[in-house]
Amino acid sequence: MNNEKKKASRKALALPITASIEQPRNLNLDSFRGLMALSVIISHVEYIRFFFNMPSHFVEPLFFHLGRIGVTGFFVLSGFLITNNLLKLKKEERPVAAAFKLFYLKRALRILPPYYLIILLSMFVLPYISCLHYQVPPGITDARAVLPEVAVFYYALLPQIAIAKFIVLPFAEPTWSIGVEEMFYLLVPLFVFFTGFRKRWIIVLSILLVLLKVYIWVYIPGAERLPFFSFLILSRFECIMVGCLMSCLVAGDHKIFRHINAVYCAVACLLLIICVITIHFDLYIYLHFAVFFGVIILYLYKHPVRFLNNKVMVFIGKISFSIYLVHEIAVVFLLNIETISPNNEFSSLTLYVLAIALSILLGWIFYKIVEEPFLKLKARLDQKHALQ
Description:
Layout: H1 2-11, H2 27-51, H3 61-91, H4 96-124, E1 141-142, H5 147-155, H6 159-164, E2 167-168, H7 176-194, H8 199-219, H9 227-234, H10 237-251, H11 255-259, H12 262-277, H13 287-302, H14 311-318, H15 320-340, H16 348-387
């Protein structure tokens, strides 16, 4: 168990979520976001309890990987939606410069204001609030102690580099996934507009990335302790590319997309559940989960599912990006209450419920104050573009 805890303290650095909302709302996909958000919160409850040296389930494979699997779902969905929008822009045959400008401006309005606000709060405000004391375990460096050295990574949208060096900025640790996505989105428009963006290229590149990770994992001793390998594992481009591939199938009305039905979706869900239940602690490849999510997303894209179209899940999905950015604040606050009030010790189930409820509340406030105003600007930009 001690060995597992040592591994976890080094590897417990990758759970949060982002998914781009770049097209008219699909209630199925909103609910999908909501489900992924809940999985991340539950996993992060155990993750932070582990950091606080409290009894936790984080060293159990299911809880250790639950958030990572949720992030994989968000990566696939994000790749799907972004590629879908890029392919639509390309079909409009507008000047490439204008298409690039529109794409990156929309990304900036969507991502940058909430991202930089949580970064600045984590650096200069939250550390001074007593009820948000954050305990970093041995083997992990608190970024606030070496801020002059690592701040540039956060300002440059590259927090995953700090994470790969086992440096954590409390409350902003989840932003690694934003860095991964933005690195990918700097490149994908070039492939869409200047190449054929063929499906076989996506498949080959994904396989090569996985083979590289497997080779390092198997043949380099102590690979899990190397910052380069950690960075490579965090940069799950192959999972995002699964979403890109699914978008290409939709855009081309491929026979695979046309034949996706409830049976395929059910099989993907069943295989996903089996892989989650039988998962091992040492897992660095999530491509199979990405494929399962890809099939599920294809089905949800074309078929309404009554079970998912409920107001609660749709609402959680709508504000999932804000929930992702603030949910650690909710968890740490609750754990500090538990620490200073021994007679009010929470059970795991109670803590999950409270963490989810408080995360949703904080996420809604953050969404209304920070995210929504810039989404309205983005919507106006879309309207102006549609009229041109």
